[in-house]
């Protein structure tokens, strides 16, 4: 029943001429019907006009209902109340009935507009609930898809690690860190325009804070982050977070040996239509000829950079230390 009402009620405002024109037509049709039934309804001059008032008030607004009341009063007074064809009421009972009908008609028009507004609000609420259900279903599908892809990524990383059994403890620790990146992404996930997105500033700032607390501890190394408030889709956020985690972690582990003091700075911003991630440090640089670590992290970040259709460059800084730059298209 509610759906039928919503389909019958016009959802867009009608022009003044349309509303009042239809109101006049409804009163005219009702008058013709009442005139044809006058031998039967002689004692009930107002009966058929009540549903007409309700109808125009429901279809349009209170003003249309008031117009229907005025027109029906004029027509009834002239055609159906003695003496007919004169704007006068001879019988005191008819006078009382006329007054009651006028007040009742105005009340019906006012109450019906309130009913219409309530139905409109209910319709909008149902539409929002339906949209929220569709959004929830889409989000669940997307999350299921992302979880499957993320699990495949973890499996791939563990498969690479299985080929490097020389340092199992470091490989397991690195995999745990990468799973932590996924957890941060899902914690900060939100919906916008039908897409699951993550705010880069909130995400990377929290990543740096966690690394400062978990890896640096009391070591004299300062971690800082300067991140623009950009929205990233889930896949991009996972890739950027994993790369940032690997680069900062490697800098903490290898750039400051023997308790050396220093700083590591992470920046992420939009520049010339591309997203740019910088991780810089003032550590000992790339002077060592022997690569440090298992090499799994370097392989992972290179693969993720290709996944983003971007480039990853790691080079020494003139002032000392290392600068790693990831650049990828903003639409990736």
Written description of the protein model:
This protein is α+β, with helices and mostly antiparallel strands and 332 residues long. It has 2 domains: 130 residues, no CATH class; 166 residues, Histidine kinase-like ATPase, C-terminal domain (Heat Shock Protein 90). The protein is built from 9 helices and 8 strands. It has a 5-stranded mixed β-sheet. β7 and β8 form a beta hairpin. It is rod-shaped. The two termini are 48 Å apart. 29% of the residues are buried.
List the keywords:
Heat Shock Protein 90, five-stranded mixed beta sheet, alpha+beta, three-stranded antiparallel beta sheet, 332 residues, 60% helix, single chain, 8 strands
Any chance you could write out the topology, listing elements then pairs?
Layout: H1 2-8, H2 16-36, H3 49-59, H4 62-79, H5 92-162, H6 168-187, E1 190-192, E2 195-199, H7 200-216, E3 221-227, E4 231-233, H8 234-254, E5 262-271, E6 274-281, H9 296-307, E7 311-316, E8 322-329
Parallel strand pairs: 3-5
Antiparallel strand pairs: 1-2, 2-4, 5-6, 6-8, 7-8
Helix pairs in contact: 2-3, 2-4, 3-4, 3-5, 4-5, 5-6, 6-8, 7-8, 8-9
């Amino acid at each position: 029943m509610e759906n039928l009402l919503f389909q019958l009620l016009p959802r867009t405002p009608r022009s003044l001429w349309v509303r009042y024109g239809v109101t006049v037509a409804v009163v005219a049709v009702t008058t013709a019907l009442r005139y044809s039934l006058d031998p039967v309804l002689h004692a009930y001059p107002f009966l058929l006009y009540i549903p007409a008032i309700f109808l125009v008030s429901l279809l349009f607004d209170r003003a249309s209902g008031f117009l229907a009341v005025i027109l029906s009063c004029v027509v009834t007074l002239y055609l159906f109340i003695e003496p007919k064809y004169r704007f006068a009421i001879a019988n005191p009972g008819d006078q009382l009935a006329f007054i009651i009908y006028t007040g009742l008609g105005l009340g019906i028009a006012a109450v019906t507009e309130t009913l219409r507004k309530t139905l409109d609000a209910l319709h909008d609420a149902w539409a929002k609930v339906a949209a929220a259900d569709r959004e929830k279903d889409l989000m669940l599908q997307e999350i299921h898809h992302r979880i499957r892809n993320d699990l495949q990524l973890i499996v791939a990383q563990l498969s690479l690690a299985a080929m490097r059994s020389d340092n199992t403890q470091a490989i397991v620790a690195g995999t745990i860190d990468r799973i932590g990146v996924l957890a941060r992404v899902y914690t900060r996930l939100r919906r916008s325009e039908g897409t699951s997105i993550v705010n880069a500033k909130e995400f990377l700032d929290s990543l740096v804070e966690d690394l400062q607390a978990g890896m640096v501890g009391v070591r004299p190394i300062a971690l800082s982050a300067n991140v623009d408030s950009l929205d990233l889709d889930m896949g991009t956020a996972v890739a950027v977070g994993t790369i940032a985690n690997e680069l900062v972690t490697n800098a903490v582990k290898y750039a400051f040996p023997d308790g050396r003091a220093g700083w590591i700075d992470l920046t992420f911003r939009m520049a010339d239509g591309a997203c740019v991630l910088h991780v810089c440090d003032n550590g000992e640089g790339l002077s060592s000829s022997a690569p440090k670590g298992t090499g799994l992290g370097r392989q992972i970040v290179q693969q993720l950079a290709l996944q983003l259709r971007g480039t990853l460059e790691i080079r020494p800084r003139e002032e000392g230390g290392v600068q790693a730059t990831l650049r990828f298209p903003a639409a990736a």
